Amino acid sequence: MKTALLVLSISLCVFCASTCQSPPVPPEVEKVKSQENDIWRAGAPIYAADDYARYLGSLRLAKEKLIKQNARLRWFRDYKEIRADFIVILARGDALIKEVQAEKRSQSQDFSKRLGRLEERMGKIEALTRLMNEHAPVRESLARAEVVSREAQILIKNEKYTQLAPKLDLIDGHIRQAEEALFSILARYADDNQVARWRKLADDTISESRRRGTTVVLVNKLARTMTLLKKGKEVAVYGIGLGKYGLSDKLYAGDEATPEGRYKIVKKNAGSRYYKALLLDYPNEYDKRRFALAKKKGLIPARTAIGGLIEIHGGGNDSLTNGCVGVENSVMDKIFPEVSVGTVVTIIGSLESVDKILAGLGISGS
Amino acid sequence: MKKFSKFLILGIFVVSLFSSCAKQPTQAIDAAKAAIEAATKEGATVYAADELKKLNDDLQAAMDEVSTQSKKFFKKFGTAKEMLAKVQTDADALKATIPAKIEAAKNAAIQAQTEALAALDEAKALLEKAPMGKGTKADIMAMKADLGGLETSYAEIQAAIDGADFFGASAKAATIKEKATVISDQVKAAIEKVKGR
């Protein structure tokens, strides 16, 4: 009898185990698994690290509950609470994905703005280099900045924002180098005393023209202009080109700089190799004294000559001279009959300080 | 009664056999973790991030299974062992693919570096024979300066390769090639401009 009872109870257990269905695991469990992967892919560990950690924490707790439930005999399992937990986690996960996307959008906008500002600075410097021929160190630094800038653009496009901050710092560094090189070239043009001297030189020339009723020529190197004045009044303004180091004041032969000062036309050459040419009396007495002093101080090699043959000539204002002032042939045609031997030609650096431009770039000129 | 006692002893023996003899697969767990660690050290974080994430997820799933079984009266670690063994196998397989991926990235970087150099050389050669005449001399000088900057940047590619930053090196090389090609195109346009006069 007892044996029969034992066999019966074992059979009952086996029957129950094989036929009693346990409730199914809620589908939300699998959904969360997929969602967690999406959240990770979206970059939550980077862009919402704290909230992602909290999300994983609550997911862990829910999974622990699931494990506990799964460990129970199947007819005692109850997934109601677990399903509720996983629904909450799904909602949190959706919010987290939105948060990550918002953060990425924000970072994209922020980095794009910063990059835009840097590129704006690069553009301003690049524009300034077009006013000068001695731009090699400036443009070299700009080219390096442009390479990194392009890399940064690609990183933004690929949503790799974590690598962007050092790139932007690098661009900033290259731009600063360009600005420093630019300032070293334009330092004289930001010096108020120097600009005042140039302005006085120009004013004296214009006053003389007005007083004596003569024709004069005023060359402004930074503005790249040549102004023809009659009796102190502006008659015409033409564009000019300068030498490789045209913004520097000529000191010796071969420095490819354009002299600054008050000169006179000493020869009109209608058959110049540069169409037509007006030879100036460079070096004047002041230039000679300056040259001698520089030589005495050892600033220039002992064998160096002072140079000469500084002209206003044709051939185009968009070419490089060796220190002369280049203009279009059509300009030479207009100016040639207006001037004569003895006409005063005053060459100045600038009438305005570039301090404002440099300050706009974030460089202090003074 | 005597028979019942025999059944009882047999039952206790069977229950003990199922519940206590099934031990946690600690060796398999350690092996799977070590395999993932080895793949990570090989560079999976950089070269196979998605696969590494999947491995870690699979490991966690296996650990959950271990945890589930540990809480059961009748412990069966067979499934967990299989899962862990698969993780280990997958991790080993992933680790084996990393050197090839690194090599491919390195080769791509070197290839990009070579192409950048070729683009720089072409631009340089074109600039050497560029017409330094009216209307072009200043532009040519500007382009020479720009090329100087690109050449300085070019040196940074090798530094990136030496530092095993192959993706960074490739990106820089591609950018330099792009900029050098722009210069070449501009010089060619300048040459055409002069020819057209």
Keywords:
heterodimer, A: 366 residues, alpha+beta, 11 helices, 8 strands, rod-shaped, B: 197 residues, mainly alpha, 87% helix
Describe it for me?
The complex is a heterodimer of chains A (366) and B (197). With 366 residues, chain A is of the alpha+beta class. Chain A has helices spanning 2-19, 27-42, 44-47, 49-70, 80-129, 136-157, 164-186, 192-212, 285-296, 329-335, 355-360, and strands at residues 215-220, 225-230, 233-239, 261-272, 275-280, 311-313, 325-326, 344-348. In chain A, strands 3-2-1-8-4-5-6-7 form an eight-stranded mixed β-sheet. In chain A, strand 2 (225-230) and strand 3 (233-239) form a beta hairpin. The mean pLDDT of chain A is 89. Chain B has 197 residues and is mainly alpha-helical. At the A-B interface, helix 1, helix 2, helix 4 and helix 6 of A face helix 1, helix 3, helix 5 and helix 6 of B.
How would you characterize the largest beta sheet of chain A? 8 strands, mixed
Greatest contact pair? Answer: A-B, 41 and 37 residues
Oligomer: heterodimer
List low-confidence stretches of chain A. none
Helix-strand category of chain B: mainly alpha
Mean pLDDT of chain A: 89
Number of helices of chain B: 6
Shape summary of chain A? rod-shaped
Q: Any idea what the radius of gyration of chain A is?
A: 40 Å
Quick overview:
The complex is a heterodimer of chains A (366) and B (197). By secondary structure, chain A is α+β, with helices and mostly antiparallel strands.
List the helices and strands and how they pair.
The complex is a heterodimer of chains A (366) and B (197).
Chain A: H1 2-19, H2 27-42, H3 44-47, H4 49-70, H5 80-129, H6 136-157, H7 164-186, H8 192-212, E1 215-220, E2 225-230, E3 233-239, E4 261-272, E5 275-280, H9 285-296, E6 311-313, E7 325-326, H10 329-335, E8 344-348, H11 355-360
Parallel strand pairs in A: 1-8, 6-7
Antiparallel strand pairs in A: 1-2, 2-3, 4-5, 4-8, 5-6
Helix pairs in contact in A: 2-5, 4-5, 5-6, 5-7, 6-7
Chain B: H1 2-20, H2 26-47, H3 49-71, H4 78-128, H5 137-162, H6 166-195
Helix pairs in contact in B: 2-3, 2-4, 3-4, 4-5, 4-6, 5-6
